[in-house]
Amino acid sequence: MSDVTRRKHGRPVHHWRRDVVELAALFTAVAVADVVANLVGHGPDGPRLLVVSAAALVATAGFHVWWSRRHGHAPPTSDTDARPPSPEGQAGPSELPGGVTAESTLWRMRTTVKDEPGSLAALCTTLAGHRVDILSLQTHPLGEDTVDEFLLRAPGTLAAADITRAVARAGGASTWIERADAHDLVDAPTRVLGLATRTALDAAELPLALRQLLGRCTIRSLPATARSGERGPDAVPVEGVLEDTVMRLRAPEGGVITVERPYLPFTPTEFARARALVELDARLGQRVPRGHDVLTLPEGSAITVRRADPGDLEAAKAMHERCSPRTLGMRYHGPVGDADRYLNHLLNPRFGRTLAVQTASGRVVGLGHLLWDGDETEVALLVEDQWQRRGIGGELLGRLVAMAVEAGCASVYAVTQSSNTGMVAAMRGLGLPLDYQIEEGTLVITARLDTAGGNGAELSFEASGEPIVRD
């Protein structure tokens, strides 16, 4: 067993044969020194020669000690595993391949290069020279140029500016870079298929799927009947329009979906993916998950909470007729007679998600809305007068916020009147950080969801202490 192997397995290295040889050499040296001393000491210059010899021996011994300490513990070049492990049992920075440290950062980068042989190779070589690992690559052809989208793992000490400068020297132009996370490790085909599945199950998922497909962007839906000064559906061809940082697509119900991303132009590849997702949604038609929960209120009444859709329009109008003008005014902030006009929009799953509360007889007594407002999200509640103060509003709001967390929303806001103490209490009951803004009697309450821990189920509130029975 070699010296390296014995040390590698943690056993001490002792050679008794080497000790015997060293001891024999020591006795031989003493005997030789005694003979030489006797011969030299009786000569005319004996004492002087003895002093010079002693000094030479001391110098030689010192040189031997220095040399052994400097070179005696160098690891063998034939076995790179001979180095002892770090105290924590993990490899230290010097033990990683290529000198890459254990700390690393994920980046998403997009750059434009010439569509010619060797341009991508030069870019990859430059990144490799900075110890940057390419985890994934997508190409977006643009005629004479190509937009290359990378997912990179770079050393933690390498800043974004250093990467962009290196890319520019390699021929990259219009480079954009931002931090990535573990979710970006999913390859593009898998991510697109997952978004298509979510869209197929729920029509309300389309805006969210587009946002996750295209990154940070603002999505707005314009109804089929455009207001004055707005570009209606007739101004957008069936195949859609791509204008640099804006794309316009025909909505399945005849309106227009506008997607804006000012910080980064869309590519034809992204436009084709978004159009395919919208076409899938149009072919599947209106659809809403049919699950529902049965709850028992403190006084013993049973209610059902479920998703609502345009088929609930007449039941919602009937609830409006049973609500007092004060309740409708607090909800819609306008003339009470116009309340019914909002229902077509609110119940449409293209613009968000709506929850309905109905009694055992099937009468709708409450509505909760989660509305996609560009890159923001609004929550709104309406509970029939005689069913207020029973915990229904808090139950609806908790479920809506849980949906917002699941959809990846950073915050939700509610617009109400400063005198609407019930809505204020429901928002405070969420247990989330709140921001308040008051203007001329209108109160805007914003709840930040980044402290919700990403678990929407934990934010689902019950109207009483009794368990929820799910059918």
Helix and strand layout, with pairings?
Blueprint: H1 3-8, H2 16-41, H3 46-71, E1 104-114, H4 119-129, E2 133-142, E3 145-155, H5 160-169, E4 173-179, H6 188-201, H7 206-214, E5 218-222, E6 241-243, E7 246-250, E8 256-260, H8 268-284, E9 292-296, E10 302-307, H9 313-322, H10 325-332, H11 343-346, E11 352-359, E12 364-373, E13 376-383, H12 392-406, E14 411-417, H13 421-428, E15 434-439, E16 442-448, E17 469-470
Helix pairs in contact: 2-3, 6-7, 6-8, 7-8
Number of strands: 17
SS class: alpha+beta
CATH hierarchy class name of the largest domain? Alpha Beta
Helix content: 25-40%
Number of helices, counting only DSSP H or I runs of 4 residues or more: 13
SSE succession: HHHEHEEHEHHEEEEHEEHHHEEEHEHEEE
Number of domains: 4
Please state roughly what percent of the residues sit in beta strands, choosing from under 5%, 5-15%, 15-25%, 25-35%, 35-45% or over 45%.
15-25%
Q: Average pLDDT value?
A: 77
- CATH H level, superfamily name of the largest domain: Gcn5-related N-acetyltransferase (GNAT)
Q: What would you report as the Rg, rounded to the nearest angstrom?
A: 38 Å
Task: Give an overview in words.
- By secondary structure, this protein is of the alpha+beta class.
- It has four domains: 38 residues, no CATH class; 84 residues, Alpha-Beta Plaits; 97 residues; 179 residues, Aminopeptidase.
- It is 35% helix and 25% strand.
- The chain is built from 13 helices and 17 strands.
- The chain has a six-stranded antiparallel sheet, sandwiched between helices. It has a four-stranded antiparallel sheet with strand order 2-3-1-4, with helices on both faces.
- A hairpin with a 5-residue loop joins strand 9 and strand 10.
- Helix 2 packs antiparallel against helix 3, helix 6 runs antiparallel to helix 7 and helix 7 runs antiparallel to helix 8.
- The radius of gyration is 38 Å and the shape is elongated.
- The N terminus and C terminus are likely disordered.
